[in-house]
What we know:
Helices cover 71% and strands 0% of the residues. The chain contains 14 helices and no strands.
Amino acid sequence: MTRTGTAARFHGHTAADDDVSKRLLESAATLSYDPAAEIDWEAPLPDGHYGLNPEWSTLYGTRLWGEMSEEQRVTLTRHEVCSIMTTGIWFEMILQQMVLRDQYLKDPGSAEFRFALTEIADECRHSIMFARACEKMGVPQYRPSRLIAQAGRLYKATARGELAYGGILVAEEVLDVMQRDWMRGENVLEIVRGTSRIHVVEESRHMKFARQEIRERLRGASPARRRAAATGIAAGAFVIVSSMVHPGVYRAAGLDVERAIAEVRGSEHRRAMMRTSSRHLMAFLAEAGLLTRASTAIYRRIHML
Length: 305
Ligand SMILES: [Fe+2]
Ligand SMILES: [Fe+2]
């Protein structure tokens, strides 16, 4: 197996690895979207349409959900989807910086370099798209807590290789499963369906790229390095999953925040949805040797396993 010039000096990037990126580049050239033109940003929002499929609401199936009016459910799901989109923007900003840093001075002739930059361009459009969708739904920014925001700052400044791509993959996989339902939801706002459709298509390439990068970086890695990566990625998953929906969404729907949080914590339906959305990810992590005792314990805690 021949190695491609400069990239090989940074990590064991082979010609076969570069072929994966080449195929992803071809796919990007065939099917990419411009959300500014693709989405009807002027269309009014029908009153009764949800922000996300009710089954994806954090409160669905709880006693509180049963007590809520239809109007409250619509408001809650719109705030929930915007909270997830804002978390998406936050994470896309982190990953753009990590990918850009990872590609620093790498061979511009390699497909890996070119796909990585294509991915950054995609994420840039996605973040603007999510920002516009939230503005359209009239939902203000939900920010992560100070502690979590600082943790994100540390992670984006230091994570590299498998740890960086592992965090990226977690966020992309979890969002992917939800958005596949959102884009098909008949009672879901068209703006959410359309943005989800674009995101699902473009992110499927990002996920392939992240999986490939993780495999490459872990090739021949020592057991200690693999264990460290496993724990680090699981810690990232903990942060991502626990900050996806901001508690402020319950207040916005006129609910008692404490009670809502307690009901979400005790919701068996919610746990099942989390496990469903993590199934592909867990299968990949198992295959990559990233389900260690420590990481498994973390995934169980957040019901991803
Ligand atoms: Fe994205
Ligand atoms: Fe992505």
